[in-house]
Amino acid sequence: MKSRKSSLGIIAGGGNLPGQVAAAARAAGREVFIAAIDGFADPSVIAAFPHQFFRLGAIGAIRQSLRQHECTEVVMIGPVKRPSLLALRPDAEGAKLLAKIGRAAFAGDDGLLAAIIRVLNEDGFTVLGAHDIMADMLGPSGLLTATAPDPAAMADVERGVLVLKIIGPADVGQACVVQQGIVLAMEAVEGTDAMLSRVSGLARPGPGGVLVKLAKSGQDRRADLPTLGRQTIQNASLAGLRGIAFEAGGTILTDRQEMIEAADAAGLFLIGVGA
């Protein structure tokens, strides 16, 4: 007699990915429970699945609900903007968690996420990456679009990869825009789309720039993998870019076919490269 798989717990931030991961887990025969972060998770995305909303600081209540729903494996997926510690208002368990995390709470996102994963593991949860549930969500290597980068565009891609590998250990951001060898913008706390919104005013005459997105070096691949979606394609086009390069096997493409179609319509290239 086959033993029933434990339920998958999904700690959900914003975007469509929490729903996609839940649907994939259910299609594989697993029950799911979504602990949705209030103010970030989209109610329409998770409506079809068992879920409960929690404020960000209610760590004890989240862990208790995961246990009540027999979740031994947990996925953290979807963007959540980190609040100030004063705004967090942790419950008693949340305060203990912050004490365990210690200085990592004041460090960059990578250090904080790694500390949270460590504490969840110590609590008996196994933390998975979204790609462990949906293996095909990671972008492949090579060109995905009809439009291909010319040698000048690939030189900009290589420049962007080099820049991101240099700033990665500083835990700053996952993306940059390069045009004609000049770094026009680097992603910080504002995110990729906000970075793209300021690029058009910085562009130089001539061929447009490229967006390059990579996982930060040393980043735990179970949380906060680089993510691109159809909106990124639209924003890159509005910014006058020529294309997008992403880390093959290390970047989530939320709607791959729709992204490819949007890029083809806009005349942009979309290519997976090695880091």
Estimate nothing, just give the exact number of structural domains: 2
Output the CATH class name of the largest domain. Alpha Beta
Q: Can you name the CATH architecture of the largest domain?
A: 3-Layer(aba) Sandwich
Described by strand count, sense and barrel closure, the largest sheet is: 6 strands, mixed
Evaluate the radius of gyration.
Answer: 19 Å
Structural class by SSE content: alpha/beta
Low-confidence stretches: none
Assign a percent range to the helix content.
25-40%
Order of helices and strands: EHEHEHEHHHEHEHEEHEEHEEHE
Strand content: 15-25%
Task: Please sum up the structure shown.
The protein is of the alpha/beta class and 275 residues long. 36% of the residues lie in helices and 20% in strands.
What would you say this structure looks like, in words?
The protein is α/β, with parallel strands linked by helices. It folds into two domains: 7-133, Rossmann fold (3-Layer(aba) Sandwich), CATH 3.40.50.20; 138-273, LpxI C-terminal catalytic domain (Cytidine Deaminase, domain 2), CATH 3.40.140.80. It is 36% helix and 20% strand. It is built from eleven helices and 13 strands. The protein has helices at 17-27, 43-46, 59-68, 85-88, 92-101, 109-122, 130-133, 151-167, 192-197, 230-238, 256-266; strands at residues 7-12, 32-37, 51-54, 71-77, 126-128, 142-143, 175-179, 182-186, 210-213, 227-228, 243-247, 252-253, 269-273. The protein has a six-stranded mixed beta sheet, with helices on both faces. Strand 2 (32-37), helix 2 (43-46) and strand 3 (51-54) form a beta-alpha-beta unit. Helix 10 runs parallel beside helix 11 (256-266). It is elongated and about 60 Å long. The model has no long low-confidence stretch (mean pLDDT 86).
